[in-house]
């Protein structure tokens, strides 16, 4: 059994995040000692690692809840997990397209500005027109 500080360092999450995940039932609840401290067993540490890897892969908290449910459930299928993953890929591709458009716009704006000490700036002029 490990305390929250030790687990936080081991897993790479803040103690606040670990408590939050517990509060939204994303992970199992740890055992409480007589002193009120949380004590984590390996099962909960594994859950925290699972959620951290899912978050690092881009899944949001709701998607993580679904993944945890599918992982723990006998009812979950590989098809469901793959569908969720493919949805996430499509979402990321959409965001990449939006970011590329923003990059293009900003590059064009930056190119239009002389960047000198003049009070006139083509970037501000272009942003002010409809």
Mean pLDDT: 95
Strand content: 5-15%
Question: Which structural class do you get from the secondary structure elements?
Answer: mainly alpha
Rg, Cα atoms, Å: 23 Å
Query: Number of helical segments?
Result: 6
**Which regions contain 5 or more consecutive residues with pLDDT less than 50?**
none
Largest sheet: 3 strands, antiparallel
CATH architecture field of the largest domain: Orthogonal Bundle
Q: Supply the CATH class of the largest domain.
A: Mainly Alpha
Q: What count of structural domains?
A: 2
Instruction: Please estimate the helix content.
Output: 55-70%
Kindly report the CATH topology of the largest domain. Multidrug-efflux Transporter Regulator, Chain: A, Domain 2
Strand order of the largest sheet: 1-3-2
Number of strands: 3
- Anisotropy-based shape: elongated
Order of helices and strands: EHHEEHHHH
Question: Termini distance?
Answer: 61 Å
Main location: cytoplasm
Domain HTH merR-type: 1-70
GO molecular function, one term: copper ion binding
Protein name: HTH-type transcriptional regulator CueR
Would you write up a description of this structure?
By secondary structure, the chain is mainly α. It has 2 domains: 1-59, Multidrug-efflux Transporter Regulator, Chain: A, Domain 2, CATH 1.10.1660.10; 77-130. Helix content is 66%, strand content 5%. Strands 1-3-2 form a 3-stranded antiparallel sheet. Strand 2 (31-32) and strand 3 (38-40) form a beta hairpin. The model has no long low-confidence stretch (mean pLDDT 95). InterPro entries: CueR, DNA-bd_dom_put_sf, MerR-type_HTH_dom, MerR_fam, Tscrpt_reg_MerR_DNA-bd.
